[in-house]
Amino acid sequence: MAECKAKLAKLIHDGKLARCPTRAKYFAFLKTAFKNHVRSLIQKHVYCFKRSGIKPPQKGALNPPLKPIRLSLDDPDAGIQVGSWDNQDRPVDFLADFEETLLEAERLVLRQIVEPNELSMRLAEAKRPEHFCARTALSRISTEHLAAGIGMPHQAFSEIVYRIRAKCRKFVRR
Length: 174
Description:
8 helices; single chain; elongated; mainly alpha
């Protein structure tokens, strides 16, 4: 805070703010000056122990200070890319691995949730009002329609969905 006040005093003393013709230019100049000052302070102290975790060398020591390692998300020389696609992390593979932990009825319900069959889509379309937008038709398939699409009572379908969610949470944690 004190450094920003000193910066403001220096700007006023040097007459830099008096050159701004309008109020908007005055505050824009002031904002830029403060941002640049704070940025330079950060660069000045980037190698201190608080920021880098590396203790500065003792005065009179011959070893130069170690610079922290800089990582980049799109560095081509890095061994791993954060944004790179790994084939083992595909959603299809995740579903296949997760389905192995489910019972047969749970697999049937999961497949119905992931990709509703034709009957459930027709049931949802039949219940849709006439003025309803066709673009959002697929997002309005209710659990009642999904249950009826596979010939299961709605209550049983909802209980299985609840069990699938619990198993999915456990599966993701391990």
